[in-house]
UniProtKB/TrEMBL annotation:
Residues 169-191, 200-217 have a biased composition (Polar residues). This is Acetyltransferase component of pyruvate dehydrogenase complex. Residues 62-136 form a coiled coil. InterPro entries: DUF6697.
């Protein structure tokens, strides 16, 4: 064991005191720093505790939201299931209603069809009766017209002449038609060749055909002996087989006319008068092809016979026009105001104007009651002119038997 001398101990005491003082100062500083750190630690713990509490609260809220979400999902699934059930029910109900409506409409449609068929049948029967009444009425009117024209004054009307005679300088052509068909043995119906009830002589006998007429009739043979002795008269022709001024009727148009029924009429073609007499007796202008009579300008005859329109074609300008009562043919109408005429068939009285032996004066004869319709679907240009005409078909007298 070593011992320090008193002198050395006295020397060491001030140094130890200073050292302890420095250490105390360092400890004090460390304690202050420790206290600061302790405060910071306390604050950190408090913040951590607050954060933990916040996390717990947030977790609780999240858990609540999760449970609510599950509940909502279950409710949505339930609603979807209910909606699907409702949709299925609606579809079935809608389909049932549609099916019921379909059968209801189908039943109504069947009833409507039955009623329509009944109405159609009734309408057809009424139309047939109306046509018959109209034909009978037109026959009576035509008889009145013929009787009035036959009693026309001498200044307007020329007296009838026998076959082969002349009317005001014009050669009288016997009303006998020569069929242009190559089949000359084609049988003629009984109604085609028969004596006419109102004929003054045998020269007024008319048989219909579809070709140009023949001239220079040599005479009339006696009736054929046999069962129908009173029904058949044969007229021979020794002249040319075509009219001098007549242009050839195209084959297609001739065949179309051959499909139309033939008629026998009792119109006396030998009764001749002028356009002026026609205008004065019926009304309307004395120039146009299609004569329209205004209601306030109808003459008494036109008013009593209900004549508001009639046709007066010129034979020179209409070479395919009928030349004998009951014959079928065509006439030309212009492409001006008459362009849209006869798109629907009309039944009109037909008069034929014929030049008198090269003179510009015209003689007019009554041809009968005709159905007029558009008989040409294409427009045809005349060779010598730049004017295009439309052919209109004339079908024979619809007031006669044999329709």
């Amino acid at each position: 064991m070593s011992t320090d001398s008193p002198s050395s101990s006295a020397e060491c005491q001030p140094n130890d005191y200073a050292l302890r003082r420095d250490l105390m100062r360092e400890w004090a500083a460390d304690l202050d720093q420790l206290a600061v750190l302790q405060d910071e630690l306390t604050k950190s713990r408090a913040e951590l505790e607050w954060t933990r509490c916040e996390n717990i609260a947030q977790n609780s809220a999240i858990e609540v939201l999760r449970r609510d979400t599950e509940v909502y999902k279950e409710e949505i699934a339930t609603q979807r299931s209910e909606l699907q059930k409702l949709q299925n029910n609606v579809d079935r109900e809608t389909y049932r209603q549609l099916l019921e409506n379909y059968w209801t409409v189908q039943a109504e449609l069947d009833k409507t069809k039955i009623e329509l068929d009944r109405q159609t049948t009734a309408f057809a029967e009424l139309q047939r009766q109306k046509d018959e009444e109209q034909m009978a009425h037109m026959n009576r009117l035509r008889a009145e017209i013929l009787s009035i024209f036959a009693q026309a004054p001498a200044g307007f009307n020329a007296a009838p002449t026998p076959a082969g005679g002349t009317v005001q300088g014009r050669p009288q052509v016997s009303p006998q038609l020569a069929p242009t068909s190559s089949n000359t043995t084609r049988p003629q119906p009984e109604s085609i060749t028969r004596p006419l009830p109102h004929c003054a002589n045998t020269s007024s006998l008319i048989t219909t055909g579809n070709g140009p007429r023949t001239e220079n009739i040599s005479g009339v043979k006696p009736p054929i002996k046999g069962e129908h002795e009173d029904d058949i008269i044969i007229v021979e022709s020794s002249g040319p087989k075509h009219a001098k001024y007549l242009t050839a009727l195209p084959e297609g148009r001739r065949k179309e006319l051959e499909e139309s029924p033939e008629f026998v009429t009792d119109v006396d073609k030998s009764t001749v008068f002028t356009r002026g007499f026609l205008s004065a007796t019926l009304g309307g202008s004395h120039q146009p092809l299609i004569v329209k009579i205004a209601k306030q300008k109808q003459k008494s005859l036109a008013e009593s016979c209900n004549i508001e329109k009639f046709l007066v074609p010129n034979q020179n300008q209409n070479p395919w026009c009928p030349r004998f009562p009951g014959e079928h043919g065509y006439m030309f109408v212009g492409l001006g105001n008459e362009r849209e005429t006869f798109q629907e068939p009309e039944r009109l009285n037909l008069f034929l104007s014929v030049p008198t032996g090269g003179s510009k004066a015209l003689e007019v004869t009554y041809m009968g009651f005709y159905e007029v319709s558009s008989g040409c679907t294409t427009q045809r240009r005349r060779v010598a002119h730049t004017i295009t005409h439309r052919a209109t078909q004339l079908r024979g007298d619809h007031g006669q038997q044999g329709k």
